[in-house]
From TrEMBL:
Coiled coil: none
InterPro entries: DNA_Rep/Repair_Clamp_Loader, P-loop_NTPase
GO MF terms held by the record: DNA clamp loader activity
Organism: Punica granatum
Membrane-spanning ranges: none
The protein's name in its UniProt record: Replication factor C C-terminal domain-containing protein
GO BP of this protein: DNA repair; DNA-templated DNA replication
GO annotations of cellular component type: DNA replication factor C complex; nucleus
Amino acid sequence: MILYEADRLSTDALLYIRWLLEKHKNTKVFFCCSDVSKLQPIKPLCSVLKLLPPSRDEIIQVLEFIAKQEGIHLPYRLAEKIADSSKNNLRQAIRSFEATWQKTNRLMEDQVILTGWEDDIAMIAKKITQEQSSKQ
């Protein structure tokens, strides 16, 4: 079992998980989190592993792999730009790659990199501030 953002779990939830882990000792659970200090109730039962974010080169390799699997020509310089704009966030890089591809269906080195749903939210916010009405 994998629990993402486990540091957002309530203390009660963590205590219940601790009880389950003590009862079922052969169960393997992975807790993914940004702040391990918030997992105090279960920390004695866990082995803590710190994983570093992917490097720029690793992100480029993943983008190239996805492009190859999807039959998309991804210029190397555009892959570099996407990796740089993602700030070592692989999910963001993949979202940007997908959003940019969906917008143009042809990738070029010098094109604008989109960020996916973040662009939609920015556009909605802009419309709301321009026309403050119940319609918006």
